[in-house]
Amino acid sequence: MTFVILFIPFMANAFFGKNSTGGTSVIYLDDTRIKIDGGFIEWYDSAEISVRGKGVETTINVDNSSSNEVRSFNVSVNNINPEITKILGLSEKEIKKEKNSISFPVKVEANKVAVYKLTPELPKDEFMFMVFGESRGGPNVFQRIIGDINYRKPLFAISCGDMVEKPSSSDYKDFMKQINSVTVPFLTVAGSSEILGGNRRLYEDFLGSPYYSFDFMNSHFIIVDNGDNRISEDQFLWLENDLMQNKSINTFVFMHMPPYDPRPGKEHPMKLGEQFRRLSAILEKYKVSRVFTAGVHGYYKKDQGGVPYIITGGGGSELVSLDSFYNYVLVDVKGDKVKDKLIKLTFPPLGWYDSLKVKVKLSLKNSFTTHPILSSFAALICLFVLFSVLKLFRRRFSRRTKRRLSL
Predict the structure, then answer these.
(1) pLDDT, mean of residues 252-277
(2) pLDDT, averaged across the chain
(3) For 122-131, how does the pLDDT look when each residue is reduced to its tens digit (9 = 90+)?
């Protein structure tokens, strides 16, 4: 049985001739080296390479300098906005554009190197991006957000994690189908539900590296991997080195777990507090412009050490309290001026029964969180009263049944 499970995917790849890469950005076709910046290779064969963008600009470097033969193949780059994307050195006639992808032919002479850079052309030196998080379990809200993305056309949209119910191939495939309708780059942060148990393999297969950075215009963007409440030493070193070399005016950081819990009575750092204090110290040292997170199902904004932290965890998952709301954040960047705007999502009111059910559920959840002993005692009393009432009705019903039988 184990042999069959392992053999089937191997034969499928062999039959179709396509090789999956596990999120790598470098492959070799015989003597030709192909490297992707700003994305990763989803799959490839001898005639075509499929690339998924992971930023705003994507560069494809084809090094054929070690080969004595001409190298030709097609490239398809998805997760971009084809309406504003140009490829330096290619005419519009050579480019095929679809809903959220571009494909074009590559031909590199023997012993030569060719570079293809995909970059968006904007009418002004300003742009907007959209941030949200915690969309799993809320398909209606998530679809509303996708609709708003396609309507507003930001430079890119980014989810701060918790997008799938569990880290399984079927859940990832369902998620990829959902975001396939997005017409701008859809970037992601690895949340706790994506890397449950420390398993990042599937995330990398479908969405690439869980931490990286990219630049656009005068801004630098950093995606941090802390969905499992920890950051590796390698990532800490990478992050500080990245910020040290950064020369951009604006710096934006995206992660899943916030270094600080903003809810009343929970001002202390979240799990593994020492790591999060170290992370906060680095962000404060380099004076980043904004830090966006999810991790808490609602919306909060707080300045900590001169750094604005924005939690936007209202993408569809169950909200954390009665006063929480579904939301996303729009960020406008004009030179060195950055403005973030909260967008509250409103939906048709629930029927009285569904509304009551939601309110009771949230009230009980909040009560057990803030006063666990008192709430447990109250719950026992309620159960005792309910049991007594049911017992009383049972006795009365039993007496009526006996009277009818005696007649």
Answers:
(1) 78
(2) 85
(3) 988 899 999 9
Same domain, 254 and 312: yes
Q: Residue 7's pLDDT is what? A: 38
**Strands of 148-218, DSSP E:** 156-159, 186-188, 212-216
Tokens standing for residue 382: 């309620």
Residue 405 located in a structural domain:
no
DSSP states of 246-289 as a string?
Answer: ---SEEEEE-SS-SB--STT--SB-SSHHHHHHHHHHHHHTT-S
Taking residue 397's Cβ as centre, other Cβ atoms within 10 Å add up to: 10
Q: How far apart are CA 242 and CA 220, in angstroms?
A: 10
**CA–CA gap between residue 79 and residue 186 (Å, rounded):** 6
Going by C-alpha positions, the residue among 125, 126, 119 that lies closest to residue 57 is: 119
The strand pairing partners of 9, in sequence order, are none
CB 160 within 8 A of CB 292: yes
Going by pLDDT thresholds of 50, 70 and 90, the confidence category of residue 5 is very low
Residue 275's CATH number: 3.60.21.10
| Cα(64)–Cα(28) distance, integer angstroms | 10
Domain for residue 271, yes or no? Answer: yes
Q: In whole angstroms, what is the distance from residue 180 CA to residue 354 CA? A: 31
Amino acid present at 67: S
Q: Rounded to whole angstroms, how far apart are CA atoms 77 and 29?
A: 18
pLDDT at position 268:
55
The answer on 323 and 251 residing in a single domain is yes
Query: Can you give the residue range of the structural domain that contains 384?
Result: 371-399
Answer yes or no: is 134 within a domain: yes
**Among candidate residues 344, 361, 380, the one where a domain is terminated:** 344
For residue 65, the number of C-alpha atoms closer than 13 Å in the C-beta half-sphere is: 5
CB 43 within 8 A of CB 20: yes
Does a structural domain hold residue 105?
yes
Q: In this structure, what CATH number is given to the domain that contains residue 71? A: 2.60.40
Q: In the predicted model, what is the mean pLDDT of residues 318-340?
A: 92
If asked whether residues 111 and 132 sit together in one domain, one would say no
**How many CA atoms within 13 Å lie on the side-chain side of 1?**
0
